[in-house]
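Dear U.,

For the methods section draft, I wanted the exact inputs and outputs in one place so we can describe them consistently. I've listed the two proteins in the order they'll appear in the manuscript figures. Please don't edit the token lines directly; just add comments below if something needs changing.

First protein:
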Amino acid sequence: MKNRILTVISTIMLFIPWTLLPLRLNFQWALDYADIMIPCYAVFMIFSGVFTILSYVKAKAQNNLMKVCLIMNSLYAVGGVAALGMMVVQKIM
């Protein structure tokens, strides 16, 4: 049961970063607050990658869907680190 819950949470975390696109396309306030929203999404992507890795390794939730979540959320985490890194470099320069 615990493995199923962890798998469902990791699967839901796959789709949350994609909500940024419709928000930025359809709402002016999302464009105005992009300097706050993008780092928040990046931190969430990093968190979801770490959560999925820990769920896979420590909790032994090792089913096929979890393997897909592990790959995708790990890629999201790397993208989140890159996005935060680019923002930090931009602020420094």
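Second protein (the one for the lower panel):
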Amino acid sequence: MAKLIDIKGYWNMTYDLDFNDKDMWEGQILLEDDGWFEGIVVDPNSSYKEDRFIFGVYHPEKVIELFKFTPIRVGAPYVFHGKRDAKGYDGKLEVIGLFGPMPYGNSHIITQYAETVRQGIEEESQKLEAKIQRYKDSIMDKTGKEFYENSIAIRRTMVESILRNYEGKYFIQEEIDELKEEFEPVNDRVMQSTEEEVKKLVKKMPDTMFDDDESLPF
């Protein structure tokens, strides 16, 4: 059964390790036994008050990799990396662009099992499940849907590789070959999608960027 966890995240775009309640989001996640989680958070100080969707890999007391999404018209997606320290999980924050993640600052995440501080969490878990489904059905846009579905398709690879990277353990060739069956089809889809988006961007560029005798590079 998934564990209900309260979660709060901070960011600092100046790469300092000072965090405050202005640049912060908070909410809850449901953590599965294999380390995969999904949840809903809000940014209390943002003008956008709708739910934001988070998901990723969390190995308690070790490491967390958290993707944070809202419709692309509102803001870019982010990935928060964190390794356990005395007060939570510290790491880098990256913004996810067309060509992959780019450095954006530092992050700090704190978590707490809901069952340790209050009762009646079964109902809370059900409400969170409903919020997650609502986001997927009514708020998630095409960009978020594609990224999420690709991540789900390589869920096992992500869960295992993040933990092994943290522990400094390597995959043997037999394991790599087995995981390739999972992630190579996704990698092919991502590359094709990226190529299509680049073509669209190039076609939107002003004609004056190319000589009259030159055609588009695609």
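Candidate sentences for the figure legend, describing the second protein: The CA atoms of residues 14 and 105 lie 6 Å apart. Confidence is low (pLDDT under 50) at residues 193-203, 208-218.

Thanks,
Y.
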